[in-house]
């Protein structure tokens, strides 16, 4: 495994020997519980986020032992370039970095969202890449100690898959990105996408513990994370769609990423969506009754533990009672924090989520998959990949305020950028565009609902990024004429 320090290494296409094939499909244990399902009212989004943060801060109070931090190979190219700082996409091609952790400690009186006062701290090397092994007692980092997102001098180090397959499609996103003045220095075609047992080590924990979830392991319970992650078999090839093609085949892999935006209501693009090689959906992907607008096929389903449980709770009576099913459907789990690892633990134990951050959800996680799930189709997104998407594509100004801890890109944004790294050609449907005010929040809304801009997401930034990707021909973004309106 290697880590990247220079952004101009994004075009590297080094190929190493492929990993040995893994064993047979792994399945989850048989059902052991059958408790009745009760209806629970939905909690306010901000309250959920606050509870999640508080829960994560309470984890891992056990005393730390002395640990030996082993060095990782240094990148021989040169010193690292500055890290991204500006949240405006137009300036992402001019990444800037400052050494060390840049955020100051948070004072007890800080209650409002104000720009963080920063000071330069002595540069801190990555625990996984220290030039000399050292033995020391490690102090556990806490998000509450920072007035804004801490920035480390190893912020732009990402795990790379040096066995990543190259594309044979001349019109591929990867080829276009390598020629784009904007993307050529920030797009990493061979970044590690998935977290599994083969990529979870003590040195990786030490490094990623500096970043708050979902971008790292800060404040998480190491025992819990290790217990669930090590159950997942190694992903043999990160570029799993390219790996599925016959050797030498030059077909361009086409993907449709379907968001849940109201712009799709009465759009009649369902057949167009289904014509792609692969179809990505997320969260409350209601299909019944909307086939003409959103299609019927599903190849990838993206979710967080919270988005899935909320979708089943709110949309269960509308037909969304479980995830999209099928022997070829792959599941992309974006790990937000403690509740996602608790979800995985309950899934493996085939138990309910009692005594967890999702205790109000009375189903067993396995019920959402109808008790038949192969682990080789259940994929965990790597924290490095999520941090890379945040740093280089969707770095919001919120990260420079006291509310930095609750910010993350929307699940739809993470799914779209994931498809951008798996597919050759990407079409995006149901995402925020200019003129979004004309449409309801979701395509399945029975009455018109205004899209609310919550502080934990940056919808304006995402709208700007999608438009620019569309204008540069990197993706195709579905947009409707100004005169076109939905039924709602």
UniProtKB/TrEMBL annotation:
Residues 43-68 have a biased composition (Basic and acidic residues). It holds the Pfam family Glyco_transf_29. It is found in: Golgi apparatus membrane. GO terms for biological process: carbohydrate derivative biosynthetic process; host-mediated modulation of intestinal microbiota composition; oligosaccharide biosynthetic process. Its EC number is 2.4.3.3. It is a single-pass type II membrane protein. This is alpha-N-acetylgalactosaminide alpha-2,6-sialyltransferase. Residues 123-133 have a biased composition (Polar residues). GO terms for molecular function: alpha-N-acetylgalactosaminide alpha-2,6-sialyltransferase activity.
């Amino acid at each position: 495994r290697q880590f990247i320090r220079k952004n101009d290494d994004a075009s590297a296409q080094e190929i190493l020997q492929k990993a040995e094939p893994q064993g047979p499909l792994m399945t989850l244990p048989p059902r052991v519980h059958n408790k009745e399902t009760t209806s629970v009212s939905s909690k306010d989004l901000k309250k959920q986020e606050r509870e999640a943060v508080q829960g994560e801060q309470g984890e891992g109070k056990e005393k730390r032992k002395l640990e030996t931090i082993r060095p990782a190979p240094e990148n021989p190219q040169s010193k690292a370039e500055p890290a991204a700082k500006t949240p405006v996409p137009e300036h992402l091609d001019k990444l800037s970095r400052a050494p060390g952790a840049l955020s100051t400690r948070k004072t007890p009186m800080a209650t409002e969202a104000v720009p963080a006062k920063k000071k330069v701290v002595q540069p801190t090397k990555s625990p996984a890449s220290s030039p000399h092994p050292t033995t020391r007692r490690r102090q556990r980092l806490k998000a509450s100690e920072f007035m804004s997102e801490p920035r480390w001098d190893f912020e732009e180090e990402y795990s790379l898959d040096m066995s990543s397959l190259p594309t044979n499609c001349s019109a591929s996103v990867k080829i276009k990105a390598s020629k784009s003045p904007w993307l050529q220095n920030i797009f990493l075609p061979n970044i590690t996408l998935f977290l599994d047992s083969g990529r979870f080590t003590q040195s990786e924990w030490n490094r990623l513990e500096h970043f708050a979830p979902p971008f790292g392991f800060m404040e998480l319970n190491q025992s819990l994370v290790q217990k669930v992650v090590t159950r997942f078999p190694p992903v043999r090839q990160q570029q799993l769609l390219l790996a599925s093609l016959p050797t030498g085949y030059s077909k361009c892999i086409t993907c449709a990423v379907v968001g849940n935006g109201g712009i799709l209501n009465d759009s009649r693009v369902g057949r167009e969506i289904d014509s792609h090689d692969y179809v990505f959906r997320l969260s409350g992907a209601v299909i019944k009754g909307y086939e003409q607008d959103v299609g019927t096929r599903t190849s990838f389903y993206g979710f967080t533990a919270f988005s899935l449980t909320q979708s089943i709770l709110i949309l269960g009576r509308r037909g969304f009672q479980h995830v999209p099913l099928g022997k070829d459907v792959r599941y992309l789990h974006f790990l937000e924090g403690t509740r996602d690892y608790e979800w995985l633990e309950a899934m493996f134990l085939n138990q309910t989520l009692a005594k967890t951050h999702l205790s109000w959800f009375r189903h067993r996680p396995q019920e959402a998959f109808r008790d038949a799930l192969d682990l080789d189709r259940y994929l965990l997104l790597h924290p490095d990949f999520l941090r890379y998407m945040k740093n280089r594509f969707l770095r919001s100004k919120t990260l420079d305020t006291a509310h930095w801890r609750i910010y993350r890109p929307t699940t739809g944004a993470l799914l779209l950028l994931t498809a951008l790294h798996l597919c050759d050609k990407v079409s995006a449907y149901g995402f925020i565009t200019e003129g979004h005010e004309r449409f309801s929040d979701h395509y399945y809304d029975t009455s018109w609902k205004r899209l609310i801009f919550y502080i934990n997401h940056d919808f304006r930034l995402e709208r700007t990024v999608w438009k620019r990707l569309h204008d540069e021909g990197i993706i195709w973004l579905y947009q409707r004429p100004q005169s076109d309106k939905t039924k709602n």
